[in-house]
Amino acid sequence: MFRKKYQLYKSYSFTQNLFFKLKKIAPDKWKHFFVGIPLGIVLEFICVYFFPLHLLFATAVSFIILLAGCYAFELFSLITGNGHYELLDVLAGVIGGVVGIGAVLLSINY
Fold first, then answer.
1. Could you tell me if 46 and 66 are in contact, meaning their C-beta atoms sit under 8 angstroms apart?
2. What angle separates helix 87-109 from helix 27-50, to the nearest 10 degrees?
3. What digits encode the pLDDT tens for the residues 53-94?
4. What is the rounded distance in angstroms from the CA atom of residue 100 to the CA atom of residue 44?
5. How far is it, in rounded angstroms, from Cα 110 to Cα 104?
6. Radius of gyration for the alpha carbons in the chain, expressed in angstroms and rounded
7. According to the model, what pLDDT value does residue 25 have?
8. Which of 2, 74, 80, 110, CA to CA, is 20 to 30 A from 55?
9. What pLDDT is recorded for position 26?
10. Does pLDDT of 23 surpass 80?
11. Exposure string (b/e) for 17-46, b if CB count within 10 Å is 16 or more?
């Protein structure tokens, strides 16, 4: 009985599975994620400066610019042949940018 419970606990260990999934993410994706954070912060500050009364609009504009910028960088890699074109790099950069945008929104509202 104890062995059966232990096996259930061992097979459904959320933190252990999460750790191994995060460990499998390539270092290149982490680089794009960490570069996306300051990019999102800068874009959100600029958009809030230009649209001070429309916070939702400023956030939408900064997200669209972030998405276009991350994709443009990967598209540049594809066209020139310098670097490696991969859409998961775009996704990692956008996720990092959303974290940066969220940090600015939290600092503005609180």
1. no
2. 40
3. 999 999 999 999 999 999 999 999 999 988 888 899 999 999
4. 8
5. 10
6. 19
7. 78
8. 74
9. 83
10. no
11. eeeeeeeeeeeebeebbebbbebbbebbbe
- The tally of CA atoms less than 13 A away on the side-chain side of residue 99 is 13
Q: Which tokens hold the place of 97?
A: 């940018």
Q: Report how far Cα 28 is from the mean position of its chain's Cα atoms.
A: 13
The token duo for 15 is 């933190």
User: What integer pLDDT is reported at residue 11 of this predicted model?
Assistant: 55
Q: How far is CA 8 from CA 20, 21, 93, 102, in A?
A: 18, 20, 37, 37
Spatial separation of the C-alpha atoms in residues 9 and 6, rounded to whole Å: 5
Q: What sign has the CA pseudo-torsion 73, 75, 77, 80?
A: negative
